[in-house]
Specification:
Elements (H helix, E strand, L loop, with lengths): L1 H10 L1 H14 L1 H4 L3 H4 L12 E6 L2 H6 L1 H10 L4 E6 L2 H10 L4 E4 L5 H11 L3 E5 L5 H10 L3 E6 L3 H8 L2 H12 L3 E4 L2 H9 L7 E3 L3 H5 L9 H8 L7 E7 L3 H13 L6 E6 L5 H10 L4 E3 L17 H4 L2 E3 L6 H7 L2 E4 L12 H5 L4 E3 L7 H9 L3 E3 L3 H13 L1 H17 L3 H15 L1
Parallel strand pairs: 1-2, 1-4, 2-3, 4-5, 5-6, 6-7, 8-9, 8-12, 9-11, 10-11, 12-13, 13-14
């Protein structure tokens, strides 16, 4: 496999690099900045303290690092931590979350870019969130004796396993996963898939899901009242939130809301799309459907005008659009019922634990591959309900509004699931400390 990797780097690295630049220009919302760093020109780390490099692809993986970073800073105060991200939104989320840490763009997996990055960061351990393995990174880290591990590991059956089982990738996968120092898998199903992909059985550990530890168990969150005031959300009227929605879901949510208004005319709806590049698209959809669209980006916390609704908009049921980053939890804290997006469309689902921690009843569609274990536990506990279309979504929201005792019971059940699954952070940090000690 190293020979094949060298042949690839010699013959195809140039065309692949050109393709990467073309893809970035055609997808500027995802990869349109940070290109010097993507080619390895990251700021050199000062001093000679030991260093742990944590890589998270996008916003979801960055959010999952919060409890891990906090515990590492507490247990290893003399170590530097560097966080990297692949997407623009992931980089922005990491910058907001860690203003006192070095945050860089993840390099393209070309030998020179990888070597430059490793020269600059000089890590003693590299932690890859969930499944972000790349051959040149593993090869170069191996040559330097730097252990590489997977944290919060998961492998989906429909997407990742199907890809790695293809003949051209099967051998590469076995080579890559066999080189990992260890894997901290979320559950036994994922652990079995890692072993199938070539990971040595002795280094695959089931530690749980870090997102249970990052889910704050509370009924409110700082800033939720200011958000409600700025947006003009009436606290004496019910609100349901559709969070992290994907393409095609907003139309279903709006259909459900129109049906709900027939029995609950005071009901408010907030939609928060997952991808920022879709904010304008969703705003236009809301307006085309005949609703007023109140956008968070245009309603600052100190805006006095935000508490009023334009005349005549009451009849059309204004829709609130969360078109800023980092405020999803605040919307969840204000909600009476939450629909978690990317589940009515086949996109793998979104984080359920954050909603569960807020003690809100959860509605999800059939597509929860990325959070299959959490979805199953929450559903069995009565904290989450499945819906399949606008009609079933409206019926489930209506029931939670009409039966507040049922909604409260569902919310508390979700918090119990979060508490029951806590502890992945400490188990992961134990693996990290053991690795550093052995070095």
């Amino acid at each position: 496999m190293p020979l094949l990797l060298r042949l690839f780097n010699i013959l195809l690295a140039g065309p692949a690099m050109l393709y990467a630049r073309w893809y970035a220009r055609t997808h500027p919302e995802k990869y349109g900045d940070g290109w010097p760093q993507r080619f390895g020109r990251v700021p050199a780390r000062a001093g000679d303290r030991p260093c742990i490099w944590i890589h998270a692809v996008s916003v979801g993986e960055v959010n999952a690092t919060r409890s891990l970073v906090e515990e590492l800073r507490r247990r290893l105060p003399n170590h530097d931590l560097v966080v990297s991200a692949t997407t623009r939104t992931g980089f922005e989320a990491a910058t907001r979350a860690y203003p006192n840490l070095s945050v860089v763009h993840y390099p393209l997996d070309f030998p020179r870019a990888i070597r430059r990055t490793l020269d600059a960061l000089r890590p003693d351990l590299i932690l890859l969130m969930e499944l972000e393995v790349w051959p040149n990174l593993l090869a170069e880290a191996g040559r330097r004796g730097i252990p590489v591990a997977i944290v919060n590991g998961r492998v989906t059956e429909e997407r990742s396993m199907a890809r790695f089982r293809k003949p051209l990738l099967r051998g590469l996968a076995r080579w890559m996963f066999s080189r990992l120092a260890w894997i901290a898998a979320q559950n036994e199903a994922y652990a079995a898939r890692f072993r199938e992909l070539g990971a040595r059985p002795a280094v695959v550990h089931v530690v749980g899901n870090l997102k249970y530890d990052t889910a704050v168990v509370a009924d409110s969150t700082p800033g939720d009242a200011a958000l409600a005031h700025a947006m003009g959300l009436a606290r004496d009227r019910p609100l349901w939130v559709a969070g992290s929605t994907g393409p095609g879901e907003e139309a279903i949510v709006l259909d459900a809301h129109v049906a709900l208004l027939k029995t609950h005319p005071a009901l408010q709806l907030a939609i928060i799309p997952r991808k920022p590049e879709r904010f304008d698209e969703v705003a236009e959809l809301i307006r085309r459907r005949g609703h007023a669209c109140i956008r968070r980006s245009r309603r600052k916390d100190d805006s006095n005008a935000a508490v009023s609704t334009p005349a005549g908009d009451e009849e059309r049921a204004s829709i609130f659009l969360g078109d800023t980053m980092g405020e999803l939890r605040k919307f969840y804290a204000l909600a009476d019922v939450v629909f978690v997006g990317r589940t009515l469309v086949p996109m793998g689902g979104s984080d359920l634990m954050e909603v569960a921690g807020m003690a809100r009843p959860i509605l999800i569609g059939p597509h929860t591959d990325n959070f299959a274990d959490a979805a199953e536990q929450l559903e069995q506990a009565g904290a989450a309900q499945r819906v399949s279309d606008a009609a079933s979504l409206a019926a489930s929201v209506r029931r939670m509004l009409d039966e507040p005792a049922v909604a409260r019971t569902a919310g508390r059940a979700g918090q119990d699931v979060v508490r029951r699954n806590a502890g992945a952070t400490l188990r992961t940090v134990d693996l990290i400390l053991s690795t550093l000690k052995s070095r």
